[in-house]
Design goal:
Structural class: alpha+beta
CATH class of the largest domain: Alpha Beta
Distance between the termini: 38 Å
CATH topology of the largest domain: Creatine Amidinohydrolase
Number of helices: 19
GO cellular component, one term: cytoplasm
Radius of gyration: 25 Å
CATH architecture of the largest domain: Alpha-Beta Complex
Strand content: 15-25%
Number of domains: 3
Number of strands: 28
InterPro entries: Creatin/AminoP/Spt16_N, Creatinase/aminopeptidase-like, Creatinase_N, Pept_M24, Pept_M24B, Peptidase_M24_C, X-Pro_aminopeptidase_P
Helix content: 25-40%
Protein name: Putative dipeptidase PepE
CATH superfamily of the largest domain: Creatinase/methionine aminopeptidase superfamily
GO molecular function: metal ion binding; metalloaminopeptidase activity
Shape: globular
Family: Belongs to the peptidase M24B family.
């Protein structure tokens, strides 16, 4: 099994770590330390050895930061993690602050003690973030000190070893394009833009560009490293030597020079006089400092692999369809099992995590989960990023809702699906909220839109039915998804926050409106879908784009108020369920087939 349920972090971790960190600060003559969540590669999911914020504070959320002083400490987290931050950190040691409205830059300007020297690791901070911190520090009379070695790494004596798993080729049968072709077309764009080299420090960029995968990061098949891509399509790939096999060298060929990860900084110092493209949102301030020191002409711009990676080619789309059909079989088996077992009153959240993982493993193709399953019974379902542990594990109550958000990593695609399931007799209120969420989901599935439309322009469609009743949800509606890569992938997204990236054919994006009643229940309906040219609209003047749904799993009919659905919405739901039955039905049998026929019956 992939998922574990151990208790991570917690207040005692912070109580243990803070004295050790403060001892290091005293040796360095520092008054404080800035501790971001990010690692050297700006990963969303971190290797255990780079979970510095969790080790220092006990807080294990995926977004946050801390400032540790001699006698005080502050933890910054966003709205998704407010309760988690409070529960995982020692109240006598950490003051809680909002990461968005009261972030570290705001704290520096308003509360930092004048004259203080606060250290930071330039390898962990993007340059634009650092610029904001420095501006606030200057106004407060505070000195930010760049450190050669991270004090946390010095204090963390039992720090896990860095990952060294072998890097494996990702063949063209899955990628749809050779690395040589990708490097050539990206290199040609660099040349057109008058650039000599692109610095790539995001592991996902390396995975896509070189058609490689690894096991350095949990839940995402990444190999940690960096690269330099030249305009002629040749490249230097910097990774730990123990990850490199003869097969990998042969696969990449002579146009890719594989060098030790430790040689990356030296290679940056060899760029004097060259025009070098670097993405300030993905590369650290340290990379910029080295390039400037070397005399390179640094050009800030988006990582040139991001948009091409988001535009899935026909082979990747075909792979996504296979992966979702395979995943749909696992989901049908799971949902049938759940409906049989839940009424017995013995299931817990961990039982359900193990069950859905087991059904995916039974496909024979699962490489990993795409994230730890969010398995929320009753009130736990109201936390969008809930992670069950042996301490929080809750039984499934009768006459309640159960929310399961889960996904798998397959060689041909990455899946992510959420279903809210009725247990017993849900209340009229639950049905009303579920149907409103479903109406938003259907609206975002059916929409047609002109070229140039962004996700932020579409977001209101998913929220309108909730808004009409005075409700909303506090997370984005849709995130991009990789092809056997990250379950969260940019640059496109669907959210209230303005996004300048237009939806283009081939982009995979989630569709996941929700509703959350604290101390009550949670509702979310999520499918993955991809952008495709839409059929012409009679009498229309412009070509339109639309979405095609990838996920194949029944939506719980027992939670729907049919009278709240319009005829067009009802038609969409019936057509979707007919497709699920047509594509998944022949691949299941016996009780599962009987269950699936009932679950997909028209309303």
């Amino acid at each position: 099994m992939f998922q574990t349920y151990d208790v991570r972090g917690g207040a005692d971790q912070g109580r243990k770590a803070l004295p050790l960190i403060r001892a290091q600060l005293a040796q360095l003559g520092l008054d404080g330390l800035f501790v971001p969540h990010e690692d050297e590669w700006q990963n969303e999911y971190l290797p255990d050895c780079t979970e510095r914020l969790a080790w220092a504070t006990g807080f294990t959320g995926s977004a946050g930061a801390a400032i540790i002083l001699k006698d005080k400490a502050y933890l910054f987290s966003d709205g998704r993690y407010t309760q988690q931050a409070l529960s995982q950190t020692a109240p006598e040691l950490f003051e809680q602050r909002d990461l968005v409205d009261q972030g570290p830059a705001v704290w520096l300007k308003a509360e930092a003690p004048a004259g203080a020297k606060i250290g930071y690791d330039p390898r962990l901070v993007p340059p634009d973030v650092l610029a904001r911190l420095k501006e606030s520090a200057t106004q407060a009379g505070v000195e930010l000190v760049a450190l050669d070695a991270n004090p946390i790494d010095q204090a963390w004596t039992d720090r896990p070893a860095e990952p060294t798993a072998e890097i494996v080729p990702h063949p063209e049968t899955f990628s749809g394009e050779s690395s040589a072709s990708k490097r050539s077309r990206i290199g040609e764009k660099l040349a057109r833009d008058g650039l000599d080299i692109s610095v790539l420090t995001a592991p996902a960029a390396l995975a896509w560009l070189f058609n490689i995968r690894g096991k350095d990061v949990t839940r995402t098949p990444l190999a940690l490293g960096s690269a330099l891509l030249s305009q002629d399509g040749t490249a230097q790939l910097f990774v730990k030597p123990e990850k490199v096999t003869p097969d990998l060298r042969g696969f990449l060929g002579n146009e890719v020079s594989i060098r030790a990860e430790s040689e990356f900084v030296d290679a940056l110092r060899e760029t004097s006089g060259k025009r070098v493209l670097v993405d300030p949102s993905l590369s650290s301030a340290h990379v910029f400092d080295v390039l400037h020191g070397a005399g390179a002409q640094v050009v800030r711009g988006q990582d040139p692999t991001i948009v091409p990676r988001a535009l899935k080619n026909p082979v990747e789309i075909a792979g996504a369809k296979r992966a979702h059909a395979r995943d749909g079989v696992a989901l049908a088996n799971f949902l049938c099992w759940f409906d049989r077992e839940a009424p017995k009153g013995k299931l817990t959240e961990i039982d359900i995590c193990k069950a859905i993982e087991g059904f995916r493993i039974a496909t024979g193709a699962l490489q990993d989960l795409s994230f730890d399953s969010i398995s929320g019974a009753g009130p736990n379902g109201a936390f969008p990023h809930y992670r069950v542990t042996v301490e929080s594990n809750r039984p499934v109550d009768q006459d309640s809702l159960f929310l399961l958000d889960s996904g798998g990593q397959y060689l041909d695609g990455t899946t992510d699906v959420t279903r809210t399931i009725a247990v017993g007799n849900p209340s009229p209120e639950m049905k009303d909220r579920f149907t409103r969420v479903l109406k938003g989901h259907i609206a975002l599935s059916r929409v047609r839109f002109p070229k140039g439309t962004t996700g932020s322009a579409l977001d209101i469609l998913a929220r309108l039915s909730l808004w009409e009743a005075g409700f909303d949800y506090d997370h984005g509606t849709g995130h991009g998804v990789g092809s056997y890569l990250g379950v969260h992938e940019g640059p496109h997204r669907i959210a209230k926050v303005p996004n300048q990236v237009a939806m283009e054919p081939g982009m995979i994006v989630s569709n996941e409106p929700g509703y959350y009643k604290i101390d009550g229940y949670g509702i979310r309906t999520e499918n993955l879908q991809f952008v495709t040219p839409a059929s012409p609209i009679p009498g229309g003047e412009r070509p339109m784009l639309g979405f095609e749904t990838l996920t194949l799993a029944p939506i719980d009919r027992r939670l729907i108020l049919p009278d709240l659905l319009s005829p067009a919405e009802r038609d969409w739901l019936n057509a979707y369920h007919a497709r699920v039955l047509a594509e998944i039905g022949p691949r299941v049998e016996g009780d599962v087939r009987i269950w699936l026929e009932a679950a997909t019956a028209p309303i």
